[in-house]
């Protein structure tokens, strides 16, 4: 199905649906969490789409930045999104607050590469929360936007913490997460 966009595999008809679900050449969906955006397009068009359709997303340059999530006490499910540009690539930083089970809210922080799964293997990210006498650190390889935030959360490929931990590191309801991207 994706031969026109670069896929050169020839598969038996029984293997085709499984491959098409994960094919790197399938169109990319809008990676912005918390929106009902139906956009689809090529990998090369993702950043242009984000910059024009989701103008509220801030982009910071550099390998080491601070991702500031404001008003973490907002009720209900909330997503904070920011972009980080370094090593000639763009990374989507996401902090997601959602109810995990009856009244118990959790925070999930992860990094997605605006790129393929193969490209994502070339990078590592580190998320750090700092507080008085406390430090919480998570290191992992970013997921590709092809997988998305929900897959990162489902696979526990993210920093997970509860509301009490968030308040331990927050300053006046704002949470600063140090984000460092490095090449493998």
TrEMBL record:
One Gene Ontology cellular component term attached to this UniProt record is: cytoplasm
Supply one GO molecular-function term.
ligase activity
Q: Kind of enzyme, top EC level?
A: transferase
Q: What is the reaction catalyzed?
A: S-ubiquitinyl-[E2 ubiquitin-conjugating enzyme]-L-cysteine + [acceptor protein]-L-lysine = [E2 ubiquitin-conjugating enzyme]-L-cysteine + N(6)-ubiquitinyl-[acceptor protein]-L-lysine
State the superkingdom. Answer: Eukaryota
PROSITE patterns the record matches:
ZF_SIAH
Matching InterPro entries, A to Z? 7-in-absentia-prot_TRAF-dom, SINA-like_animal, TRAF-like, Znf_SIAH
Give yes or no: UniProt keyword Transcription regulation: no
SIAH-type domain location: 1-55
Q: Which GO terms describe its biological process?
A: cell differentiation; proteasome-mediated ubiquitin-dependent protein catabolic process; protein ubiquitination
Instruction: Write the Enzyme Commission number(s) for this entry.
Output: 2.3.2.27
Query: What does the comment on domains in this protein's record state?
Result: The SBD domain (substrate-binding domain) mediates the interaction with substrate proteins. It is related to the TRAF family.
Q: What does this protein do?
A: E3 ubiquitin-protein ligase that mediates ubiquitination and subsequent proteasomal degradation of target proteins. E3 ubiquitin ligases accept ubiquitin from an E2 ubiquitin-conjugating enzyme in the form of a thioester and then directly transfers the ubiquitin to targeted substrates.
Q: What is this protein called?
A: E3 ubiquitin-protein ligase
């Amino acid at each position: 199905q994706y031969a026109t966009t670069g896929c050169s595999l020839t598969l038996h008809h029984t293997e085709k649906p499984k491959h098409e679900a994960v094919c790197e050449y399938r169109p990319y969906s809008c990676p912005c969490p918390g929106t009902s955006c139906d956009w689809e397009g090529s990998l090369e068009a993702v950043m242009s789409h984000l910059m024009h359709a989701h103008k509220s997303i801030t982009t910071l340059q550099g390998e080491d930045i601070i991702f500031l999530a404001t008003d973490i006490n907002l009720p209900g499910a909330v997503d904070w999104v920011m972009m980080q540009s370094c090593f000639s690539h763009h990374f989507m930083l996401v902090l997601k607050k959602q109810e995990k089970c009856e009244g118990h809210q959790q925070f999930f922080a992860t990094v997605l590469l605006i790129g393929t799964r193969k490209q994502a293997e070339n990078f590592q990210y580190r998320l750090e929360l700092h507080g008085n006498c406390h430090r919480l650190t998570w290191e992992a390889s970013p997921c590709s936007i092809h997988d998305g935030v929900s897959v990162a959360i489902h696979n526990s490929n993210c920093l997970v913490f509860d509301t009490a931990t968030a308040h331990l590191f927050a300053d006046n309801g704002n949470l600063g997460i140090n984000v460092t991207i490095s090449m493998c």
